[in-house]
Amino acid sequence: MESTVAQKLEALLNLQKIDSRLDAIFKVRGALPEEVQDLEDEIIGYQTRLDKFQTDIQTLEDDIKRFKDNIKESEKLIKKYNEQQMNVRNNREYDAITKELELQDLEIQVSKKKIGESQAKIEQKNTDVEALKEILKDRQKDLDGKKGELDTIVAESEAEEAKLINEKEKAAKKIEERLIKSYTKIRENAKNGLAVVMVKRNACGGCFNVVPPQRQADIREKKKLIVCEHCGRIFAGVEDEIEEEPTTKKKRSRA
């Protein structure tokens, strides 16, 4: 059986009340969830940089080992060429060996220079690593503090939040999908999260613009869904003002 407009409005208003209570819970938490997430992302970024530094240092150490091996190999060749030079038969052989000796000597010089450059880079990266570790330590301390604060606040409202989420799921099942989509879209665009409001004191309960009397009459009838022409919020009804009781008349003084 299809729900009447009045029933749809009642269901939407009930959903709005639940969401407003959830909004109040999240408001108490303030920006803490975002701050915690930002700190976690920042720490991941620093950790990634730290890992890259460690990889770069390992690569440089591997290069140093390779350059040292090159030096050893050149030293072996120099020893070999020196021995051969003692047994040359002509100037051509002597010159050829001399060139090889010069080439290996140059290889040693280049390798030593590369080793020095790599060691300097390692030293700088180690300095960067230590500085980054200090930053990580501080950020982790900040994160632990923020998470502790957030966990305390969440613990205080965890049971109520779970209860409200359960109620929201049940309430949403009573509303057709197209209305849920419209409701959600309006809530996303509303600063105060209100998608369903009452007319209060002749004005929209969301944007506070005046609602004409004839439009109020249509809203009271609840025969169709009516939205605020200014903000697009759904009107659930009109709240009647409670008339104040007249003040007690002063007793007439006797003549």
Report on the structure:
12% of the residues are buried. A three-stranded mixed β-sheet has the order 2-1-3. Helix 1 packs across helix 3 (91-173). It has 255 residues and is mainly alpha-helical. The longest helix has 83 residues, at 91-173. The protein has helices at residues 5-29, 32-85, 91-173, 177-189, 213-221; strands spanning 196-200, 203-204, 234-239.
Topology (elements, then pairings):
Elements: H1 5-29, H2 32-85, H3 91-173, H4 177-189, E1 196-200, E2 203-204, H5 213-221, E3 234-239
Parallel strand pairs: 1-3
Antiparallel strand pairs: 1-2
Helix pairs in contact: 1-3, 2-3
Which residue ranges are poorly predicted, with pLDDT under 50 across at least 5 consecutive positions?
243-255
- How do the strands of the widest beta sheet line up side by side? 2-1-3
Beta strand count? 3
Major sheet, described briefly? Answer: 3 strands, mixed
Strand content: 5-15%
Q: Average the pLDDT over all residues and give the rounded result.
A: 92
CA radius of gyration is 40 Å
Distance between the termini: 72 Å
Helix content: over 70%
Number of helices: 5
Q: Indicate the structural class.
A: mainly alpha
Order of helices and strands: HHHHEEHE
Indicate the overall shape: rod-shaped
